[in-house]
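ok so for the tutorial part 2 we go from a plain amino acid sequence to predicted structure tokens. step 1 is just haveing the sequence, like this:
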Amino acid sequence: MNVELLINVCEYETRVALVGDGLLQELHLSRAGSASITGNVYLGVVQRVIPGMQAAFIDIGLERPGFLHARDIARQRGANAEEDGSAAPDIRKFLQAGERVLVQVNKDPISSKGARLSTDLAIASRYTVLMPFSEHIGISQRIEEDTERERLRSAIEELRAELGIGKGFIARTAAEGVGRDQLAADLRFLERLWERLLERRVRSAPPACIYEELPLHIRMVRDVVSPEVERIIIDDAGTFRRVQEFVSEFLPEFESRLHLHDEAAPLFSRYGVEEEIQRALKREVPLKCGGSIVIEQTEAMTTVDVNTGAYLGSHDLEETVFRTNMEAAQCIPRQLRLRNLGGIVVIDFIDMLEEAHKREVMRVLEKSCDADSARIRIEGFSSLGLVQMSRKRTSDSLVRQMCEPCERCEGRGVVKSAVSTCGEILRSVALHARKTQAPDASEYVIRAAECVVDRLLDEDAAHLERLSRSVGRTVRLQVEPCYLPGQYDLVLVQSARG
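step 2 — the prediction. this is what the tokens look like for a chain of 498 residues:
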């Protein structure tokens, strides 16, 4: 795959796009005053311990306290080893209100929820991740060769002994094929970083941030750049110099792949990223075959519906359905990754009769998920023909980062029709007339949207006339240009003729 990393920088926003084979694969945003805090380490204070939830709320200096569950406390591992494993130990054994605690943000605050925290810290560098409260050595699951996994494990064990570092490490995917000297430099860097972090903990008064992750553009270069990435293109000279310094120190072999974008056309427009972003905000995603997928994000889960649409196929119905599902299976993982959709995802593929077709669709779906760095779990077709999967994310989805609920529909995505509103108005007038003893010389004034008034004067004119005679009062209509079909005012006023 031809991969490019595009970095667009302006004073109020930084955007990083990962483009593969000309298609936008990932988009990351960082805005002034609202950057991601995932990975940051805080010295916090326990506000409340909730035994019923086996959780605690930690003040880390943000608008809302962070949430720390018992299973995310590093010390719990030792406690579990001593117990029979049937139940989690009481969180009150570990935390008390007012206690200082060192925590790391695992998930940004989302909607009304505070940040998700853990005491099991993990500090990342280019090739390894330091786990200061563990002695475990782990290897990225994306490194598949047994010989390479064993080489990395042995190298890290030997280096730990030589450097006197009694802490745990995880070899990242980027460590594959990396020499011993580079690994040693990584381990020394992380050990020095941890020592400085401990010094800041002693000097700081909680709540305080004592370790901050790298800014978005540097973090993406650190985490994403691999031999597959052919070019890193940046459109800001100052950011280009900072990235160049980082690459020169930590990734010198990629210096020649850095490019400063100085064309008249904006970087994202030049590579078609702006159009891709706009498409990623829509519900429907067209497929090349003529079919489509429809993505709906709810509070609890994301649903994906596959439709044949205009695709009629050239053989039988089963073949048409199979081809549409195959293309959807390739498209869906990219859309989940691009839109940063997480949690439970339910996919409603078009029903297939042949088991071989179902197996092939699952194989393509799983293979298409391999490029995603997020942790994904996929289950096969259920008895209802649905595929359920889960995808871990650490920040808001793209739609929630870039959009807000519509003021007109209040986030529902629909507004009440003019027909329904007219019926509601007629019922309201009749009900009010029955309940209210009003002077004879009075009339009703209805203020509503133009489409509602038009209907009351046209299709529902006979109903309105009968209602007026029934209540014994004139009903006058008034257009309010700013009203939606579902909005109206009913006012009883003294008639001018009275």
